[in-house]
Amino acid sequence: FYVGFNVGGFELGIQPEGEPGPGGAVAYWGTADLRAEVARAVELGATVVEDVQDVGGGILVATVADPFGNRVGLIQNPHFDPASVK
User: Whole-model pTM above 0.90?
Assistant: First the structure.
């Protein structure tokens, strides 16, 4: 399952399956352009673990791993409105 939070106008989500550490639980960070952010992460040394997927409702997700194996999820959620944060 997935739990999403609004943190100062940004989406932060956690998929708590797995153990903490490399290859375990995944935190998701929201972005307005998922494909561009995945490409940027790869340019910075990450590898793609799960390529961009549509998980329904127009929500796109992907997972990358940093050079140490730590996984980071990226999410593009058209239903999340950072402007609604006061």
Answer: no
